[in-house]
């Protein structure tokens, strides 16, 4: 680099005749190579592509097309182009919406017409069947983008579309970027390459919550500065202004002063928007705290959002607020400081902690001193008596201390939910909205939503009204994680438009409905509309753990396609996954999924509707797991490799331990010779025969021994003559191997991974 100030850049310079380009990457360059001709009769190498391996991504440039554009990667797209802040999964995406999203993504990175270069790296062939259903994984990022709409239907995540919300707002760095571009010289000709960009222009742009309606192509994106964006998918570019409205969640409550960051200022006037998701409405929460919960009901044209101060309901069809409720406690001073503020006092936190410890000790001493001695003697006598074997003993439960009502951040809204159910009486059902807070409070509102016009799906322009119907306070004030309403058959209610368009079975409105409230300590089912307790399961008292993530999932039968059960999947703070029946709340299975030390992985977990889940095993990797015996996504692929001459051939008789072949879920890897015809379909057609060849099977330990920490080879046992003979061949076998060695050297091999 010609300047010392360029020393922090990661560059690769490409010179061809008079053309010079200095590729400027955002991560360290590990290695690079050119894809060129290897024929000895060619006079020049004639490079076709340049592959650059970076610390965070893999970039390939087309050297045959003018301008040397980047070739879109079919795999290994960096998840962490910007830090992931939230994620959501959408199952069973309609084919029409899928095609529109793919088309919008192709317009974002169009390939030049003169470019005919495909991905030059041979990564193998996918032998898995085409997925019957399409799934989307949405990831929100720190730089204000839903970076990617990922194709999560198969094994590898494939990027489809990128949504950016930063263009709607005025940020502090816009002026600084313009000055930097003016000062920068024209030489060397730097060119930004790659999509990895870990730097955020403004931390207020960070995406906190994402919700998508797959039937109307409407989307809600909520951010760190209290911004709630309502977007709609459009196939054509447009120039339009975005309507802006604000909702005051404090409701002019006195004694509270916001000490956090300022809200983002939107651009005014008509703005150009490319094809894709275009903003229709911007709702600004006041104070501008981070949005902690959001839900969308496209059939009613309503969006609900919540922060650490309260929750609101907005009618984006009429562009008017419907409801605003403050959930702050008088002692919620920390809620007024914001996540980006450092005003929090360490002394105050320590003081509150010591008070809580002192209070629990004093209450324990009072209970010990007031215990009756006669009662203790009676309990001792009962303990000495033998208990009949046919009497079922009640499991020991841990004593749960109730949380204080004046704890900090008790007003944080944790979940929001829309449902068409019975709230006022047992004969009339209607739209409702439910909200759960950090202090164990549940608010249920009855909504008056105008009916849709005749022959149309949009409702009339009458105002929506909300009336508080029920208010529930959990005994131990544990934070409410999720809320769901069950119909008369005990099944969750369908999503918006599913019942009206006959896309799902209509809910049972004849039997009594129930509401399932999941807190951090227990699950409880209440009957509706009386809201009386029906059944419960105390997870913290039985297992000593707390609930972190909850979802209702449908588990289909392996034997019968017509049979399926709806269960409650739960992830705890210990990384365990529990599955309970619904509505009985009986424990079904229990798995160890994530390490309890992996706090970020537990916080990033998201369940799917069919018993699968995703979580970040690292900042750049999603790990996928399945709780269903039928819906399993596993890699099934082949890799064609050619063995050069004088290369070491693999052993024809490696020994494989039956126990080690199943350790740690190691994939079955088979190395088999390719057919003489070299047809790519021959391997696929004879896959069953190839995997049964014992002489071509490699030990999984030899492949995964570097990464499998739990697999241990113990060679210190009894060594006998018979044990040694298994590894020794006869002289006839040696001569036979020598005769066949020359024929084996030129043979191609195929690596099957299952």
TrEMBL record:
Please give the name of this protein. Answer: Lethal(2) giant larvae protein-like 1
Q: Where in the cell is it found?
A: Cytoplasm; Endomembrane system
What GO molecular function terms would the record report?
GTPase activator activity; myosin II binding
Task: Output one GO BP term.
Answer: Golgi to plasma membrane transport
Q: What region holds the Lethal giant larvae (Lgl)-like C-terminal domain?
A: 514-670
Alphabetized, the UniProt keywords read:
Cytoplasm, Membrane, Repeat, WD repeat
- Keyword Iron among record annotations: no
Task: Give the main location.
Answer: cytoplasm
**Gene Ontology annotations for the cellular component aspect, listed alphabetically:** cortical actin cytoskeleton; endomembrane system; plasma membrane
Task: Check the record and name the InterPro entries matching this protein.
Answer: Lethal2_giant (IPR000664), Lgl_C_dom (IPR013905), LLGL2 (IPR013577)
Residues forming the Lethal giant larvae homologue domain are 1-69
């Amino acid at each position: 680099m010609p300047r010392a100030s360029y020393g922090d850049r990661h560059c690769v310079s490409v010179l061809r005749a008079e053309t010079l380009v200095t590729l400027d990457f955002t991560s360290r360059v590990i290695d690079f190579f050119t894809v060129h001709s290897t024929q000895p009769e060619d006079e020049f190498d004639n490079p076709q592509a340049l592959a650059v391996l970076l610390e965070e991504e893999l970039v390939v440039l087309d050297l045959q097309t003018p301008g040397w554009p980047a070739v879109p990667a079919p795999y290994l797209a960096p998840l962490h182009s910007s830090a992931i802040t939230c994620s959501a999964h959408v199952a069973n995406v309609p084919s029409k919406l899928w095609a529109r999203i793919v088309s919008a993504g192709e317009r974002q990175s169009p390939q030049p017409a003169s470019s005919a270069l495909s991905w030059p790296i041979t990564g193998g062939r996918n032998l898995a069947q085409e997925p019957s259903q399409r799934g989307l994984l949405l990831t929100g990022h720190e730089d204000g983008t839903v970076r990617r709409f990922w194709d999560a239907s198969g094994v590898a995540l494939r990027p489809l579309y990128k949504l950016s919300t930063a263009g709607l707002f005025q940020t502090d760095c816009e002026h600084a970027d313009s000055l930097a571009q003016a000062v920068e010289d024209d030489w060397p000709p730097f060119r930004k390459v790659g999509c990895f960009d870990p730097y955020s222009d403004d931390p207020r742009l960070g995406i906190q919550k994402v919700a998508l309606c797959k039937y109307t192509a409407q989307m809600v994106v909520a951010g760190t500065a209290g911004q709630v964006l309502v977007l709609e998918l459009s196939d054509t570019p447009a120039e339009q202004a975005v309507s802006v409205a604000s909702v005051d969640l404090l409701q002019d409550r006195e004694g509270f002063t916001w000490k956090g960051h300022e809200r983002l200022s939107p651009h005014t006037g008509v703005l150009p928007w490319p094809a894709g998701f275009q903003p229709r409405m911007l709702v600004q929460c006041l104070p501008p705290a981070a949005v902690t919960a959001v839900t969308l009901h496209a059939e009613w044209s309503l969006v609900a959002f919540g922060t650490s101060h309260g929750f609101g309901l907005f009618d984006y069809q009429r562009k008017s607020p419907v409801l605003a409720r403050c959930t702050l406690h008088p002692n919620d001073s920390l809620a007024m400081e914001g996540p980006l503020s450092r005003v929090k006092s360490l002394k105050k936190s320590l003081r509150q902690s010591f008070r809580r410890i002192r209070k629990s000790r004093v209450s324990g001493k009072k209970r010990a001193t007031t215990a009756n001695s006669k009662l203790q003697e009676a309990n001792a006598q009962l303990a000495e008596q033998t208990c009949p074997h046919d009497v079922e003993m009640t499991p020991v439960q841990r004593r749960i201390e109730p949380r204080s009502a004046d704890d900090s951040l008790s007003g944080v809204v944790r979940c929001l939910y829309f449902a068409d159910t019975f709230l006022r009486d047992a004969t009339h059902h209607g739209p409702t909205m439910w909200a759960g807070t950090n202090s164990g409070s549940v608010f249920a509102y009855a909504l008056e939503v105008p009916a849709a016009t005749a022959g149309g799906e949009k409702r009339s322009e009458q105002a929506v009204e909300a009336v508080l119907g029920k208010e529930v306070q959990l005994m131990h004030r544990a934070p409410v994680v999720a809320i769901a309403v069950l119909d008369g058959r005990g099944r969750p209610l369908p999503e918006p438009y599913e019942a009206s368009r006959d896309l799902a079975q209509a809910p049972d409105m004849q039997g009594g409905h129930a509401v399932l409230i999941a807190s951090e300590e227990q699950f409880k089912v209440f009957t509706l509309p009386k809201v009386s307790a029906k059944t419960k399961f105390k997870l913290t008292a039985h297992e000593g753990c707390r609930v972190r993530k909850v979802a209702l999932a449908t588990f289909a039968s392996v034997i019968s396609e017509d049979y399926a059960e709806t269960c409650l999947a739960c992830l705890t703070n210990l990384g365990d996954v529990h599955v309970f029946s619904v509505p009985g709340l009986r424990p079904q299975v229990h798995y160890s999924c994530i390490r309890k030390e992996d706090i970020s992985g537990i916080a990033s977990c998201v369940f799917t509707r069919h018993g699968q889940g995703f979580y970040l095993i690292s900042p750049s990797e999603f790990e996928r797991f399945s709780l269903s015996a039928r819906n399993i996504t596993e890699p099934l692929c082949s890799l064609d490799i050619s063995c050069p001459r004088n290369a070491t051939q693999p052993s024809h008789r490696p020994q494989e331990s039956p126990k080690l072949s199943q350790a740690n879920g190691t994939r079955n890897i088979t190395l088999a010779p390719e057919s003489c015809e070299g047809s790519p379909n021959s391997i696929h057609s004879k896959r069953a025969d190839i995997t049964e060849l014992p002489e071509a099977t490699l030990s999984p330990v030899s492949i995964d021994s570097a990464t499998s920490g739990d697999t241990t080879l113990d060679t210190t046992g009894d060594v006998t003559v018979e044990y040694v003979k298994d590894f020794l061949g006869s002289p006839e076998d040696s001569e036979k191997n020598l005769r066949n060695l020359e024929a084996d050297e030129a043979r191609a091999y195929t690596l099957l991974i299952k």
